[in-house]
Design a protein that fits this description.
The protein is α/β, with parallel strands linked by helices. It is built from 20 helices and 22 strands. Helix 12 packs parallel to helix 14 and helix 14 runs parallel beside helix 15. The radius of gyration is 34 Å and the shape is elongated.
């Protein structure tokens, strides 16, 4: 608890996709209503196959380690979403990490945990029975999702059981597993190939239905005409698809609101049984054309609510200002329908109430296609028998005015989106500009990138850096330090640096540091990283721009703080060089008198190697002997240095020099250390390159088996056999380096011994 306010953390799998944004919106509403502090930790899918573009996104999952007992009061976990690509055992293991914290699971079920899930059966049953009874369908197929996901399992069961009740057979041939994304085209093709003549395809979610639409278009099949398609989630994309997608409406905002309430109950020590949330069918064009009529003269309370739920389904069940404004508009329409005498005041009242309804933001929750259909139906009903109405011109004018207001509000929304994007672009440009202007890595520069965050709707931010960057490889557990370093803060739009003596912050105080004040907050934590190095984290306000473009901000800030780290390290090196130069000057030692021997390894240094190698090469040419040039690169020196210390890095380099020396000797070749982790050799002999590489691998394997070091020492070797008698040493080394590059592609970054 911070300053008398609870802190509830949400562990989710993305920051800005549709489902997560709805989860976030529901939590934001309840946190504000209950005066509770809220923090989102948006990781990524565990165990997701990585592409070149997403190779390092696993660093987002380090966020989950920032929630521990005593720094939050409760945690809400979207466990099955996070573990979408994981096994049930892996998901359970993840959930158990938070056993000491009051926990609620969203759309996931685990024994002994309070869970809030959808009633997947109700909506699916309604959709299937409609297709059987009205469309007379009997041939069903399903594009599913991972069986580690609770919803995927239940949705398949709901389809199978509903069909069984209607004596319709469903076999495994009628089912193909997808990955819940709009990229599962191969699974869609497999399902269609296995089910010629299929009449209905149920897609486990709307995202996978996007892929199904693509494949149907490939085969010149039209949803709603040649084949019926049913989705799940009723996300915005469902209404935007063409033909529009019929879908099972499941409200993630309400799911999140109830999860929040359950978390509060757990904090307060109340019994918190698991719950389920109703779902319903939303029919659209993918079920075939159908016109629904309603009678304005017979609109009782239930029918008014039903129409509201149909048009503004994302506000299903909500009876706030949006519903009150909507109800006034409907009542005005009913009055206009009933009026036969000319009454200008009714028309003016309708326009005023319609404008007030738009001002509530109700359009954000509307299915626009359905809304326009309803408006057309209302106009048709009111203008029916127009020749008998004395206000015919006013009815037409009122309808025209309402449409203009609707269009104006949509244009206003588009302008807001454009301005938001422009603001985002400007913020990104400013961060990029700041990176180019850094002159050093001093602490006062850490606050500079924060100054541009207000352009993204952020007025409060806290920059937590690690004492030094941590190398974190995919699949490894990251052990969080006990302390972080609060380098800079933004409070109410004002940015300040934190002095070194006040930076040290316990992990227990991440969400209640001394600079946060007493105001309630809703924030998100984001990682700062570059490839396999984690630099720190930023805790900042949740804004619309962050929900839409948070990952872009992460990339920009990460680049900025990586640059500061590089500059800081460069400054340290420069300081060391200056000290070294002072010593050299005092002792009258000059560069051209430096020894030819590398002091650490005892073999030639770069200068010594090139001089000795040129001499050796000229001698072998006289003898017409065979010889090879080698380029050797130690694997993962940086990881050894960062994880085990520079002494161990030096030990590994010495061991590589010893291995080369033992394998090649002094008489038949020249060995040198020509860079930090780079060695070069030239040797006389006829042995094949692969045989030599194998010899080196076996030497390292023998050493690693007997060594008590917790890590393996390995090196990649590139070899070139010189066959042209006039070839220069530099040219031969370049060709050996090309072979080394190919070898390095095969190496693993895993160095720790099992």
């Amino acid at each position: 608890m911070k300053n008398g306010k609870y802190v509830i953390a949400y562990l989710i799998h993305e920051l800005g996709d549709y489902y997560c944004k709805e989860i976030e919106m529901g939590a934001l509403q309840r946190a504000e209503e209950e005066n509770v502090n809220l923090v989102f930790l948006p990781g990524k899918f565990m165990d997701r196959p990585q592409s070149a573009e997403t190779r390092y996104e696993y660093q987002y999952n380090t966020l989950y380690s920032l929630v521990i007992e005593d720094n939050v009061d409760a945690v809400v976990i979207a466990a099955d979403c996070i573990g979408n690509y994981s096994s049930r055992e892996k998901i359970a293991e993840f959930v158990h990490l938070y056993d000491e914290i009051p926990s609620v699971l969203i759309a996931s079920k685990q024994p002994g945990k309070s869970c809030i899930c959808y009633d997947n059966f109700k909506g699916i049953e309604a959709g299937v029975e409609y297709l059987i009874d009205v469309r007379e369908c009997t041939k069903f197929a399903m594009l599913g999702g991972p069986m580690s996901n609770t919803d995927c399992v239940e949705r398949k069961e709901a389809l199978v059981q509903t069909l069984a009740k209607r004596r319709i057979t469903f076999t495994e041939k009628n089912y193909t597993e997808g990955d819940l994304t709009r990229h599962c085209h191969d699974a869609c093709r497999e399902l269609l190939d296995n089910n010629p003549g299929v009449e209905v395809i149920f897609c486990v979610n709307d995202e996978s239905a996007v892929a199904m639409y693509d494949v149907l278009e490939e085969r010149e099949l039209v949803p709603g005409r040649d084949i019926y398609v049913l989705g799940y989630d009723n996300s915005r994309v469902a209404g935007q698809m063409r033909p529009s997608l019929s879908s099972i409406w499941a409200d993630p905002m309400e799911l999140s609101r109830q999860a929040f309430d359950m978390a509060l109950n757990l904090i307060r020590g109340r019994k918190t049984p698991s719950r389920s949330l109703d779902t319903m069918l939303v029919r659209r064009d993918s079920f075939g054309s159908e016109v629904e009529h309603f009678d304005l003269e017979d609109m009782d309370t239930d029918r008014i609510k039903a129409l509201y739920n149909k048009v503004f389904y994302r506000l299903q069940g909500a009876r706030g200002i949006e519903y009150k404004a909507y109800k006034k508009v409907i009542r005005d329409c009913m009055s206009l329908m009933a009026a036969r005498e000319k009454d200008v005041s009714i028309h003016e009242q309708l326009k005023e109430d319609f404008r007030e309804a738009l001002d509530t933001g109700i359009l954000m929750y509307a299915d626009m296609e359905t809304l326009l259909d309803v408006m057309d139906e209302i106009y048709t009903r009111i203008s029916a028998g127009e020749e008998r109405r004395q206000d015919r011109r006013e009815v037409r004018q009122a309808y025209s005015d309402l449409f203009r207001m609707l269009i104006f509000k949509q244009q206003e929304t588009i302008r807001d989106i454009v301005e938001t994007n422009q603001s985002m672009d400007f913020s990104i440009k400013m961060v990029a500009r700041d990176i180019m202007q850094f002159e050093n890595g001093y602490d006062q520069n850490y606050s500079i990138p924060l100054k541009n965050l207000p352009y993204m709707g952020i007025r409060n931010a806290y920059l937590y850096m690690l004492e030094k960057p941590v190398v974190h490889l995919d699949g490894e557990k990251m052990d969080m330090p006990e302390y972080f370093y609060l380098k800079a803060v933004m409070k109410d739009g004002e940015v300040r640096n934190i002095t070194a003596s006040n930076q040290k912050t316990s992990i227990y105080d991440l969400y209640c540091n001394d600079y946060m004040g007493d105001d309630r907050f809703s924030m998100t934590m984001l990682p700062l990283y570059s490839t396999d190095e984690v630099y720190g984290y930023i805790l900042c306000d949740v804004s619309d721009q962050i929900l839409d473009n948070g990952e872009i901000l992460v990339n920009q800030l990460s680049a900025a703080y990586r640059m500061l780290h590089v500059l800081s390290r460069a400054q340290e090196i420069m300081d060391q060089l200056e000290q070294t130069n002072d010593v050299l000057k005092r002792n009258n030692i000059f560069l051209d008198s430096l020894s030819r021997i590398d002091q650490m390894t005892g073999i030639y240094n770069r200068r010594g190697f090139y001089e000795a190698a040129e001499e050796f090469l000229s001698e072998t040419l006289k003898d017409d002997a065979h010889y090879l040039v080698m380029y050797v690169d130690m694997d993962n020196l940086k990881i050894v240095n960062d994880r085990y210390g520079h002494d161990d890095g030096d030990f590994a380099l010495i061991k590589i020099a010893e291995t080369l020396h033992e394998a090649l000797g002094d008489e038949d070749g020249v060995i040198g250390r020509i860079g930090g982790d780079e060695f070069a050799c030239i040797v006389r002999g006829t042995e094949g390159p692969e045989s030599i590489k194998k010899k080196f691998r076996e030497s390292f394997d023998d050493f690693n088996r007997s060594s008590d070091k917790p890590y393996n020492i390995t090196a990649s070797v590139g070899i070139y056999r010189i066959e042209e008698p006039d070839m220069k040493l530099e040219e031969a080394l370049t060709l050996a380096d090309e072979d080394l590059y190919r070898e390095k592609q095969k190496r693993s970054k895993k160095i720790a011994k099992d």
